[in-house]
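Can anyone check this?
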Amino acid sequence: MLAPLIEQLDGGRAPWLPGYRVKILDGNCIEASDRRLKPLREVQGGALPGKSLVVYEPAYGVVRDVFPCEDGHAQERSLLGLVLETVHAGDLWIQDRNFCTCAFLCEIDRRGAGFITRQHAGLPFEVVTTLRSVGRIETGHVAEQRVQVRDAQGNPHLFRRIRVKLDQATRDGDRVLYILTNLPLRKASAKRVARLYRKRWTLETACQHLEAYFHSEINTLGYPKAALFGFCLALVAYNMLAVVMAALRSVHGAETIDQALSLYYVANDIAQTYHGMMIAIPEDEWRVFSRMRPAEMVATLRELAQQVCLKAYRKSPRGPKKPRPKREGTTKASHVSTAKLLGERKVNAATP
């Protein structure tokens, strides 16, 4: 893992909640591929080559885990069993309502980890205390109460339920959000929990960067294994870039890098320079880095970071976003699972 290297660089970000390892969980569905495979040529809907669950650790700016699935139609919740194997005491998992299930939340709680999740409408719970107002945050009014959720064995788990009445509706039109957490009040107030949940968008931003800067979704890769492999390679590239950003933070300061430096310009410069460097510099010259001890690597990265001209990579500020116009008379195109179609073809071929 690259996290120890980032620690030695002293290039990590301030912890979101002291005492916890924050991990953000979200799903990523690889976009429809070209119809190069024979079973896809007569299919009308877009061919989905797979999906995955991604775990992002904001303290280091790296993707900690990825759980790939070849079936593009698979329910994201079907992968939660694999995620639970990576849950440890001291973690703080932040996720959307798609992952708000009794089994998942109660098992996180049983393992001594924390969670912050938006409540799913189908989650059964018992009210323990009535809602009480705790004041306002930047986006609306906050209130909280105690609720009880039971696991499959009937064991009760006491959680906090936080309501946020938004000043402005979300892009889905919601004016009220309900957030569940098992964090004790002494660790995080209701206001802090609501603010931490808002920062969940950090992972979605990272996934947007993956697609925009690293071409993580290659449309020509129709086979699920190939498409998922390409996506995972993009994650590795993203994590390597996180080390570069950590080195820059350690030299130039976290605020300067996180607020003013454009990740797009950095990634674009690397992509444009890479091929020329591979031609101009013999392969053996790069082996020196593979033999470096961590302390040597840290010293080298800091030395290189000091020579970077930050002005060439500054962000270009944009104006406020305009609201999306409402579209009428449009319907979403249906999609098919590439893995299922290939499986059906194999079965049909084996049938006499």
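Reply from J.R.: I decoded it. The chain has eleven helices and twelve strands.
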